[in-house]
Specification:
Elements (H helix, E strand, L loop, with lengths): L2 H5 L3 H19 L14 H4 L4 E7 L2 E7 L7 H14 L15 E8 L3 E2 L5 H10 L3 E6 L2 E5 L10 H12 L11 E5 L1 E7 L2
Antiparallel strand pairs: 1-2, 1-3, 3-8, 4-7, 5-6, 5-7
Helix pairs in contact: 2-4
Protein name: AmmeMemoRadiSam system protein A
Pfam families: AMMECR1
InterPro entries: AMMECR1, AMMECR1_dom_sf, AMMECR1_domain, AMMECR1_N, AmmeMemoSam_A
């Protein structure tokens, strides 16, 4: 996805994506097979390939969050698929139930293309993040972990942000490697209630 389409998604287009996520989740509880989005209803920006994450919360507690950092499919299809996956396939949580829908909020994050930044130490990364509250991907030795920029609301310190991301990847809190790859990205996002 180009930086142009990432930056020009407007409120109406983001609202359409939120509606797609709601329908994807709703389809699980209705009879018959879930329907994919009808492409003819959407403009070219929503039909362009784009990467996204869909985050679900019930009563303010994380209930599911899955996505991709690379654009593989039209954005409308990515949102549809990631909403269903977040609701029913995130292994960290029990599948979403119908009783939870009244307390459900959905957040869709459309990612910019992650960019590798040249960081030679953890302290350099701390210094960079102190000035740039971006999404972060750390990768090394076939392991990686990602935090969306929204995680800054809960983990305000760059040191703690990095530490928690390393733990998420399965490394120790003090792990650092000369071969660590650091990527940053931003998102355009929208959050709304299921009902």
């Amino acid at each position: 996805m180009s930086a142009t389409s990432y930056q020009t998604l407007n409120k109406g287009e983001l609202t359409q994506l939120l509606d797609i996520a709601r329908e994807a989740i709703r389809g699980h509880f209705s009879s018959g097979l879930p329907k994919s989005p009808e492409y003819s209803l959407y403009g070219r920006k929503l039909l362009a390939p784009a990467a996204c994450f869909v985050t679900l919360e019930v009563n303010g507690q994380l209930q599911g969050c899955l996505g991709s950092t690379a654009a593989h499919s039209p954005l409308v299809l990515e949102v549809h698929n990631k909403a269903r996956a977040s609701a029913y396939q995130d292994r960290r949580f029990m599948p979403l139930t119908e009783e939870q829908l009244s307390q459900l909020t959905i957040e869709i994050s459309v990612l910019s293309t992650p960019e590798i930044i040249d960081i030679d130490s953890e302290q350099a990364l701390v210094d960079f993040l102190a000035q740039n509250k971006l999404g972060l991907i750390l990768a090394d030795n076939h392991q990686q972990a990602l935090f969306l920029p929204q995680v800054w609301k809960k983990l305000k310190s760059p040191t703690n942000f990095i530490k928690q991301l390393k733990l998420k990847a399965g490394w120790s809190a003090d792990y650092w490697s000369k071969t660590m790859t650091v990527k940053t990205f931003d998102v355009t996002s929208i959050k709304g209630k299921y009902y």
